[in-house]
Task: structure prediction
Amino acid sequence: MNAPTPKLPEPKLSPAEIAGLRPDTRLVHGGILRSPYGETAEALYLTQGYVYETAEQAEARFKGDDPGFIYTRYSNPTNAMFEERLALLEGAEVARSTASGMAAVTAALLCQLRAGDHVVAARALFGSCRYVVEELLPRFGIASTLVDGTDLAAWEAAVRPETKVFFLESPTNPTLEIIDIAGVAAISKAAGALLVVDNVFATPMLQSPLALGADIVVYSATKHIDGQGRCLAGVVLCSQQFLTDHLQTFLRQTGPSCAPFNAWVMLKGLETLPLRVERMQASAAALADRLAGEEKIAKVIYPFRDDHPQHALAKRQMRGGGTLVTFEVEGGKAGAFRFLNALKVARISNNLGDAKSLVTHPATTTHQRFTPDARAEMGISDGMVRLSVGLEHVEDLADDLTRALAAV
Result:
């Protein structure tokens, strides 16, 4: 028996109505593009290309007169749902997904820069981001200046007539420095430059850079947005004008596209993002306090602790202290390694934002390519450990940390 031809279901909520809902609800219902079959879960469109009813329609698609899909390197219905949902959460006009977080960072910078331009960036950056700023951009004639991100006067002093972009992450990786996003945004606007903010540590649940004056926000969706260590993806969020003038053509022609399957995984991750971040940051705050009372811990860094150097700023621009805790174990590298090797619940991995608690030694992993002097300038010691707190029971994690410290 032949199945009846399905009809496209009428949406119950308009995009404007969804935008007016609270973030948790937007992360469940935002951006849904249902097929005529009326599926409840978002459809996964595993296709490379699309067919056209006529040659005239194909021409209109390529000219931009018809809004349909052309090729999955350009766009895909599953990717479009993920992008719209995250844009709704972030308060951005548009979003574009990429193959990884570093693809998002590189695209956001290179799409708008030309030979002779200048970038000002905070020196406390993820190792791969520092590579792009310090080594990759100069190959194309793009100069850069690294500054102490916490010093607004340093940002202002670094501006040149050819400065086009400011770039920062806050909280920083792995030292959890907090940079005054609104303050830096004011300087960038006065200089006629665009501010790009990597918001991966704070997540969109705890910090909204666009509301603080940033122009472009980038994420490694691999981290909290997936949240379960499955797939790679990145996102660039920006204005429609920036997309039209710079990003869209760059992404289409260079091809750092997100696989539809990965975008589908990220869509499902967004549904539970508020629950996971809330639980993880509550545990992180509790563990930071517990670690601060341990004799073999020389220093604990957590943005919402009173002893954090930018505690007041963190409280002002963030809605929570985050899911990561950084601390220094006595005994340098040897002490840190003994601690890491003694852990049983938290596992050694350079990833973060996972449902499982993960620990890493930045000096020998994420920031190993830097000289000891460069690491010292960034505040990364040989005894430093970065803990990404997962969804385990906080007491089990506390017991695990205490047992491991006994081995130091």
